[in-house]
Amino acid sequence: MAPRSRSVPAWLDRAASLSWRALVVGAAVYVLVVAFGRLRVVVVPLIVALFLSTVLVPPAQWLRKRGWPPLAATWAVFLGGLLVVAAVLVYIVPSVTNHFSDLQHQANRGINRIQDWLVRGPFHMSRKQVKKDFHNLGKQLNKNKGALLQGALQQATILLEVVVGGLLSIVFAFFFVKDGHTFTSWFLGLVSEETAADMRALGNRLWRTVSGYIRGTAINGVVNGALMFAALVGLGVPLAGPIAVLTFAGAFFPIVGALLTGALAALIALVAKGPVAAIIVVGVTIVIHNVEGYLVGPVVLGHAVRLHAIVVLIALSAGGAIGGVLGAFLAVPTTAAVLNVIDYYRAKAAGAPPDDDDAGVVGEVDRSPPLVVRPAEAPGRR
Fold it and tell me: How far is 321 from 325, CA to CA, in rounded Å?
């Protein structure tokens, strides 16, 4: 009789099963990431349009409930949004234009002030060496003028792509607001009733999650802009209002947005008020970055999408490492969306799927253990 072969240990069999499933899922995620990169010209505007729709749909629905036709309500909301954007631009552009000539004159004085500070300050450099270093810096800039021009052309190409993507986002958002229910009904009509019910419930949950994320990010931007505005006004730095507006917009680009707007504010402070004011603005930028990353961002966004603060921090860090600014921007709503889907199907498997109206965001679902009906107590078993 042939000897029996040893069976594979249960733990090794389970580990191998989980490993190949993980490899399949990883391959699928990789394919999605590659496809996303190839189709970013269309995919990114669609995502931006979805975010815009979360802001524009509520007022459009409010108008429809009061008898406005869908087309008229959509146009009214979009024109109102354009008026708000135009008002912000009207506030920013003249302020920048009025201070531009002053900043040019202050730039020359600022360079002389920096030279004097290097000579008379803690470094005690010789004036001859300082002038020589500034002269060499100017020569290096002129020498690398071609490289700077090439970089400017690359930035212009990116700017053109952003402009085209912005126009596509506006067009997509217009049709989402106007015909969103039509698109949804058509798509749900392609699947079975049970699947349509699940997708409708999940859609409502995900919609509320994205809306909460946008509101939380806007609150975060208001806090960041207010802190920057107070600091610049206290230092007497010009263009405090426009920089505060840019800081608010930068909040929608986590981590990088605050650093870029802070660098711009520090540069203007250096030109207008000197290096001490610039160092103070840099310190304020660091404070804003920490407030955004460790206090307001996790608390406000975590409350908006019902995620714990540590989950928000992990999502932001992982998203930024994987996808840069766009990855950090999409990390929190994507994490909340995935947890919503898992939570919904877990509740459904337990026999008590939440209703559409009660399934707003993660954390609002009743997580108490379901009642277990024993076989002897089940109907028809008596």
Answer: 9
| pLDDT band (50, 70, 90) for residue 77 | very high
What pLDDT sits at residue 359? 38
pLDDT band at 210 (very low <50, low <70, confident <90, very high): confident
- Quickly list DSSP for 231-274: HHHHHT-S-HHHHHHHHHHHTTSTTHHHHHHHHHHHHHHHHHH-
**Position with higher pLDDT, 258 vs 81:** 81
Calculate Rg over the CA atoms of the chain: 28
Longest dimension (CA), the chain: 103
Quote the CA–CA distance of 269 and 232 in Å, as a whole number: 8
Q: Are 307 and 213 in contact (CB under 8 A)?
A: no
The 10 Å Cβ neighbour count of residue 28 is 10
CA end-to-end distance (rounded Å), the chain: 53
Q: What's the rounded Cα separation, in Å, for the pair 266 and 281? A: 5
Taking residues 28-36, report their average pLDDT.
82
Place of tokens 């004085």: 109
Distance in angstroms (rounded) separating the CA atoms of residues 273 and 9? 72
Q: What does the DSSP 8-state code read for residue 295?
A: I
| pLDDT (tens digit per residue) in 317-369 | 887 777 777 777 778 788 888 888 888 888 877 776 555 544 333 333 333 33
- The fraction of the chain above a pLDDT of 90, given in percent, is 4
User: At residue 39, does pLDDT exceed 50?
Assistant: yes
CA distance 58 to 52: 11
Domains of the chain, by residue range, sit at 39-97+126-189, 191-362
Q: How many residues does the chain have?
A: 382
